[in-house]
Amino acid sequence: MNPTSLSRRHTLRSLIGGSMLFPAILCELLAAEQPATSPLGPLAAKPPQFAAKAKRVIMVFATGGVSHIDTFDPKPSGKGRDGNGKDKLMGSVFSSSANQKCGTEVSDLFPHLRDSMEDICVIRSMKSAHFDHTEAAVGMHTGSATFTRPSMGSWLSYGLGTVNQNLPSFIVIAPHLPYGGTQVYASDFLPAYHQGTRVIPGTQPIANLVARTETERIQRQELGLAAALNQHHLQGRHDDSRLAARIKSYETAFQMQTSGPEAFDVNAEDDKTLAMYGLKRGDTKSFAWQCIVARRLAERGVRFIELVDSGSRPNWDSHGDMKEHEPLAKAADQPLAALIADLKQRGMLEDTLIVWATEFGRTPTKEGKFGRGHHGDCFSMWLAGGGVKGGIVHGETDDIGKSIVRDKVDVHDLHATILHQMGIDHTRLTYRHAGRDFRLTDVHGRVVKEILV
């Protein structure tokens, strides 16, 4: 037995000798010193329901509502007549061209992603859950624009657990919270340890994470004692997920003191990799940093990783001038293309599903002089890797980008498809709450098999 265990046992026996602990609790504490034979806990990795194409998801959420007309569904001329009059129509503000290999047309806002289109499936026929920011953002994440529900990342954590007990199963990298706030990564009625852990880009992504090495031995003893006491307190309170989550959070926090700093330390990357992402060494706040950290977390077994692309203020919500899309696109284009290429060269793209989404599209008509309003009837998103066909476009909108004319995909369909690629039947991933079985897709959703390999 190692000295740490002897010291801890000595501490425990001293406590009981001083009548500080009940004998029954002491037995449990000493039993906790034995080699662990129990499962890893509520976040232990679980097998998928059937053979999965993807092992993990990296979701990128561009908050504010990206214009499909000016990005992935260009309408250069704005042809046609709108109900408000032809004079208000505005075609794509930016020029566009097609990928030379697969022919997918993309705005000049995203030249690097355009070059990556052979690995990307663009869906141009998405239907938003709502046309208001908060409802649409929450709907994209939870499947419900009107009622509080668990987020998709929480559902996947609940269904599959994590393969790395030293890191959370669900991590959200968000310099600013999107519309809907913490609800977009909340667990709601699912056990609270499935909620997302927010990381804020910077020199200390998670505050107070670095351990004080001189007190590590003492800290381990304290945590061992606390864990045994917590487990004793939890007995008979197994329905209290907040208590269980608090216990689990302390355990994960301790484990992250060694795993966390290493995972977020992009200085370990070579110059070639940093240059591929367009990341300057020492930069910890750019979107490029988020993308390279996402790859590092994916390598280390995190099940669901979300990057919130909120840019600086204002975000993608370009009511006044579509030129506001330019700096945001420039900041995201190269890093996203590099993330695809990096995963591909490491043999990880085939089992990593990248999902780029936004709240809704923007109107084909002008708002103000050169802006656009919210448009939930159709918008674009894209997926890469994880068993999704690359080099294709699914769905179609009319010639002004106002309505879907073929192959509509709503948020429930998207969620059903993501779960399917992770080896889960969306109708069978359920949780009993308030007298009924809930699921991410509620009573809706179909797997969009046309885009799958």
From TrEMBL:
Protein name: Sulfatase
Lineage: Bacteria, Pseudomonadati, Planctomycetota, Planctomycetia, Pirellulales
InterPro entries assigned to the protein according to its UniProt record, in alphabetical order: Alkaline_phosphatase_core_sf, DUF1501
Transmembrane spans: none
Top-rank taxon: Bacteria
